[in-house]
Amino acid sequence: MENANTFVVQRSNPDTIAQPVGQYSHVTKISPNAEWYVFSGQIGTDQAGNIPDDFNQQATNTLDNIVKVLASQQLTPDHVVKVNIWATVPIDWDHFYQVWGATFGATPPSMTVAYVQALGLPELKIELDMWAAG
């Protein structure tokens, strides 16, 4: 996916530090006239509001929900500046990066990952919150 939003969101990885250890960008620069969007944490509910027990299905649903909430504001994943990932169990990175890459493509946003003891509902295993600019 090419970053169709290059005048608002620009990403880079400086050659003065090690390359990212995952699929993210070290630096995300926002143009001065951009509108900022802050989204509540997105979870892995399906369309009916059900939360699957399987971690990978929760991760897939979460990224699908991110695309949908962005679209509700006429935004795309290219507008995402930063994603914070909160997980209660070890992340299956092979699966996660498959759906992450399908969502964000070759220019992924900046990312932080944290493992926590619990999220807002006991059945939640992953939650992502994000900031976007457009």
Write out key terms for the chains shown.
globular, 134 residues, 6 strands, two-stranded antiparallel ribbon, 28% strand, 60s Ribosomal Protein L30, Chain: A, single chain, alpha+beta, four-stranded mixed beta sheet, 2 helices
Structure description:
Helices cover 22% and strands 28% of the residues. With 134 residues, the protein is an alpha+beta fold. The protein has one domain (9-133): 60s Ribosomal Protein L30, Chain: A. The protein has a 4-stranded mixed β-sheet with strand order 3-6-4-5. It has a two-stranded antiparallel ribbon with strand order 1-2. Helix 1 runs parallel beside helix 2 (93-104). The relative contact order is 0.28.
What's the helix and strand layout?
Blueprint: E1 9-12, E2 27-30, E3 36-42, H1 55-71, E4 80-87, H2 93-104, E5 110-115, E6 126-133
Parallel strand pairs: 4-5
Antiparallel strand pairs: 1-2, 3-6, 4-6
The N- and C-terminal alpha carbons lie at a distance of 17 Å
Structural class: alpha+beta
Assigned CATH superfamily: RutC-like
CATH fold-level name? 60s Ribosomal Protein L30, Chain: A
Give the ordered list of helices and strands: EEEHEHEE
Mean pLDDT: 93
